[in-house]
Amino acid sequence: MSRRRCRPVTVLAGLLVLALSALLLPSVSARSTAAAGTTHPGAVPLTELTVVSEQVASGLRRPIAITGLPDGRMLIAEKNGTVRAYHPDTGLAPDPVLDLTARIDTSDNERGLLGITPAPDFASTGMLYVSYTSLPAGALTLARLPIGAPDQVQVLLTQEHAEYGNHNGGQVAFGRDGHLYWSTGDGGHANDPFKAGQNLGTLLGKIVRIDVNRACGAKPYCVPFNNPFVRTPGARPEIWLYGLRNPWRFSVDPVDGSLWIGDVGQGLVEEINHIRPWQGGANLGWSCREGTPVFDPEQCQPGGKYTDPVFEYDHYNDNCSVTGGVVYRGAKTPEARGTYVASDYCSTRVFAVRPKLSGGYESAVIGNFPTQPTAIGTDVHGELYVLSDLPGWLNRVRFERVQPANH
């Protein structure tokens, strides 16, 4: 079962066959048809790429987040609150490098330790930033601490999330601007029960941006002066983007600083959004819309401006829940550079999306990941890894070139 849904996949499947029977395209929308031409110097059409996965570690307990360190290690967050270290030369370390279990509420399938990222100056400070659902009531929590020092946790920001256990978001990442970004879900259950997505007065259903290098007043962080809602009455100034349902995984492209967001849909559409640095304040639509289709007309504002996803797919053929990924910037496969790679928790399909120099995007399905992909990350060299939830696997990912079908 997907860790980010509110209903069993088997129930969804029956409903979706009825709801989507008129659609002809099983895996991607007409908005994201693959282009024939290449888009970057040295790149090849996405249809000429496929992914191959190699298991490099096992025995993890519900691994849900992964990040690379400057020394070549990968840190893997486990849902229960422990963090494991993997190095390609020595494998998976037997003991956790960090244990936060005493702080974390794991009472629901989607609660737990959710995100982890090193500070930009980690090599000198050893500082980590983490997100989790905290005891006693599952509040969404953003905190920092030196690696290996759970007694030195400093909570930066919290958001109440007590009534339902699902839709917690949880990704944390630093942008090229040096600010910290954090994703939150809409509060859980179904149908946006608190109407949080379009409400600028709550952090639910948002991506937050804060400056963690300074403190302002009683807060251990500052709000960047150019955050979009700093001067909006009644709005939380920390908000960077809004209109999200459950942005379980997003990433920052290290080349241009743009955000790629996998936002989990409800029963119809899974979506991927691509937000450039100058698009702060964008409204991604939920719960007025689910992807591009209208979901709840009462949440749609007259004349409202919504930012469309750059890729969306339906729930045919076992699709159920998008796992947002990363842009490949590694050196081993130059032909794939600049390609965003995401997957689906149930079908395990790998979706490749890439901007075209002429405008728009090209996309393709380029294979499958191992079962239940929960997170896709990169090492210090930009090479890809993917986690598998219940099996507890870590897999290294590489690209292979395939010949076009007409050759």
Describe this structure in words.
The chain is mainly beta. The chain has a domain at 9-31 and 63-322: TolB, C-terminal domain (Neuraminidase), CATH 2.120.10. It is built from two helices and 25 strands. Strand 8 (127-134) and strand 9 form a beta hairpin. It starts with 8 loop residues before the first helix and ends in a 6-residue tail after the last strand.
Which characteristics define this entry?
407 residues, mainly beta, Neuraminidase, five-stranded antiparallel β-sheet, four-stranded antiparallel β-sheet, 2 helices, 4% helix, 34% strand
Q: State the major sheet.
A: 5 strands, antiparallel
* Shape summary: globular
CATH architectural designation of the domain at 9-31 and 63-322: 6 Propeller
Number of strands: 25
Query: Which CATH class of the domain at 9-31 and 63-322 is shown?
Result: Mainly Beta
CATH topology of the domain at 9-31 and 63-322: Neuraminidase
CATH superfamily name of the domain at 9-31 and 63-322? TolB, C-terminal domain
- H/E element order: HEEEEEEEHEEEEEEEEEEEEEEEEEE
Residue share in β-strands: 25-35%
Structural class comes to mainly beta
Which consecutive residue ranges, at least 5 long each, have pLDDT under 50?
1-38
Gyration radius, rounded = 20 Å
What proportion of the residues is helical, as a percent range?
Answer: under 10%
Total helical elements: 2
Average pLDDT number = 91
Termini Cα gap: 40 Å
